[in-house]
Amino acid sequence: MKSQFPSEIRDRIEACGVVAVLVIDEVEHAAPVAQALLAGGIDVMELTLRTPAAIGSLRMIRREAPGMLAGIGTILTPEQVQEVVDSRAAFGVAPGLNVRVVKAAQAAGLPFAPGVATPSDLEAALELGCHEVKFFPAEPLGGMRYLSSMAAPYGHLGVRFIPLGGLTAENMQNYLTDPIVAAIGGSWLAPRKLIQAQNWEAISERAAEARRNVDEMRNTKAARN
What's the pTM? Predict the structure, then answer.
């Protein structure tokens, strides 16, 4: 298996365990929310292209919070790929699998994880050389039980999944204890309302809780092995 993610980025994502997924409306909120997440121990984030502030926010984070590994999500068109590359995003993510977008990302050298929901999606991703994929929407599709069943025929290919959609501090353990999961997407860490309210303390607390949960799960797993 040849990963399209450089080892240093792949290792950072796996070490973090929970990728903070954010919708930011104001560029001036970008650095404070990144710093709040870092204070809680979460150092990987995905800024979604759902608002005009996303690209400017990423540039701000690169300047003001260099300890954060920041990527861009909700990449839906080939044109957006170049915009994301120009902003120096660490990686790109999409909710679905668009062949044109995947090929544009590959041509631009952007580490990219398309979204999959079915075995057919996964086979299409593998055909394109994608071995890191987003599993979306995770909980509505059936959660880890569905993902385990879907992924079983492809286990020998080394596919790694990043589930997102309906994940919480309460159900994250269902996912992170399975070796096919590289990390999970955590939109609950810094929800839009908390960012708009500039409640950085609450975001740090949520990040710290997630960090503790990840570390506890991994320590327990290591002790069993």
Answer: 0.95
